[in-house]
Design brief:
Helix content: 10-25%
Largest sheet: 2 strands, antiparallel
Structural class: alpha+beta
Oligomer: single chain
Distance between the termini: 19 Å
Order of helices and strands: EEEEEHHHEEEEE
Radius of gyration: 62 Å
Number of strands: 10
Number of helices: 3
Length: 173
């Protein structure tokens, strides 16, 4: 006779609660702005016009104006001389060009003087410095601490084994 035997076995895996801690993190970055400096230096102004006039050098606008006046006077003198030469014999005291050339000039006076009589005029505009300061910027990033949980549920595994066994066991003769 055969007997069916059944063996039951089970394994239990306990439930687990896993915990992982992530630490807090702080990150600080600095953006450097710094100082910006703009310099506006002292400006010196020198006016030499009176100085040059005192030693006989005229400024350009005065030279141009004087040249225009002299040119106009030379043209008028030339026209007058041409007219006089044409009519030289008609007037009571008329002189010819040759007579004019032979006349002696008047007495010329000379004078000793110290030059320059005027010095240059020196002035200035104040200089200054612009200083622009911007504070450095701090950028702070904070990641708070975290705790992560993972739950693994319990598990029951049941094993059933079946086999046949002879009963009563036979003995070998």
């Amino acid at each position: 006779m055969y007997i069916n035997q059944i063996s039951l076995r089970y394994d239990i895996t306990r439930a687990q609660l896993l915990m992982r801690t992530i630490p807090a993190e702080i990150r600080v970055d600095t953006v450097r702005n710094g100082i910006q400096i703009n310099s506006h230096p002292l400006k010196i102004k020198i006016d030499n016009s009176d100085f040059f006039k005192s030693i006989g050098i005229k400024p350009v606008p005065t030279v141009l104006q004087d040249s225009a006046v002299k040119g106009k006077k030379a043209v008028l003198d030339y026209m007058a001389r041409q007219t006089r030469e044409k009519n030289a014999k008609l007037g009571p005291n008329a002189k010819t060009v040759a007579e004019i050339a032979n006349t002696k000039p008047g007495h010329i006076w000379s004078k000793l003087d110290f030059i320059p009589k005027e010095g240059p005029h020196i002035g200035w505009e104040d200089g200054y410095v612009d200083i622009i300061y911007k504070k450095d910027e701090r950028i702070v990033n904070i990641t708070p601490a975290k705790i992560e949980f993972q739950y693994i549920p319990y598990k029951v595994e049941i094993y059933a084994e079946k086999w046949m066994k002879e009963y009563p066991p036979q003995q070998d003769h």
